[in-house]
Amino acid sequence: MRLNCSLLARRPQKEPVPFQEVLPLRLKKTVSGKGDKTSDVACLQEMAIMLACFKKNDFNQALCAKEISNFQGCYKDFVAFACE
């Protein structure tokens, strides 16, 4: 006879636990969460092109001068627009 199953089984609660309302039970008018955060990602396409050029040319900056200047110009435009 196995007594472990009957000894380890959960017994029903004898008395129900009363619910205590700590805060009022109503919905808020606004929702807070991760959706409020804005991302300040700038020039992602130019950066990807520049890094692909670096990888293709073994990180030789002389061969990727055009991509570097495009990325720097895009970033300068972003900073100028962000300051306004």
Automatic annotation (TrEMBL):
GO CC list: mitochondrial ribosome; nucleoplasm
An individual GO BP term: mitochondrial translation
InterPro entries: Cys_alpha_HP_mot_SF (IPR009069), Ribosomal_mS37_met (IPR033620)
Protein name: Uncharacterized protein
Signal peptide coordinates: none
Gene Ontology molecular function: any one: RNA binding
